[in-house]
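Project standup — Tuesday

K.O.: blocked on the structure for the chain from last sprint. Re-posting the sequence here as requested.
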Amino acid sequence: MMHKKVFLEEKICPVCKRPFKWRKKWEKNWDNVRYCSKKCRRNK
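H.V.: unblocked you, prediction finished:
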């Protein structure tokens, strides 16, 4: 059975300027997520 991908919220990482999408692991914390990765968080 095929599942449609629902629209996922997107933000732009201030370090690499690339868009990144909402992930399940950020579900409870999405408002505070600013960086797309740990690497970008370190390089702020």
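K.O.: great, moving the ticket to review. The longest helix spans residues 38-42. The mean pLDDT is 92.
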